[in-house]
Amino acid sequence: MCGRYALSTDSDGIISELKIENVSESALSSELKADWNIAPTKEIYIIKSFLKNKNTPRSSNDRSEITGSADERILDTASWGMIAPWSKNYLEANRSQSMAINARSESVHQKPTFRNAFRSQRCLIPASGYYEWATELGKYPAKQPVYISSRSARLLLFAGIYSYWFLPDGSRAIQSASIITRDAVADLAEVHNRMPLFLPEDQFNRWLDPDTPSQEVEKIIQVSDPDFDLQLWPVSSSVNSTKNNGIKLIRPIELGESQTLF
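^ thats the sequence. predicted structure below, dont judge the formating
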């Protein structure tokens, strides 16, 4: 699973690296600061395509009609953790997010919270890296935090889904998103049995296109080399507290012999 991640690149850097053509009003008005300890319910950046339904709000602050091509990417913001569609009030909505920060690739097309978003509201979630906490069966001692990032210093892009939840009075739409996870492989499986789903770049457009048939989408997520370009190292337990932040959280630490299993 993925419960914390880092993003040190600002919106201009994301736009430049990923060649994004459009920016939502929400992303323009709320520039997100570099954050090395992004936790559930925080506002995050997502990348998506135009929806064909003009009446669908583009962001939490924008309910205007929009038009565009499905291969045009938009930088937007969302709250991390999918809000259950049946939430009756803001308190219920906020509570539901903590249980839906991740969606399993094996069942995302079936679960009531996720299945509608999986059909047509798919996104990519940019990150500089993410944290995982070791389980008892891997290389590291249990609960040891590990940081995973790109060897080539590129942005990581989690496969994700997003949805809109309207306040009961219809006054505001809140956009929320979840990260899709899959079985971990190779070195990552020595840390935890789950990892975020990373897609090949040549599949990005089909993933983001709301008109891509569900059967094709289910094939896209069957990735043959899911850990391509990834590296990892142990980091300080300071990341355990959301009060802590800064680049120091991702600095490698040395583990003594008594702190490793082999």
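The radius of gyration is 18 Å.
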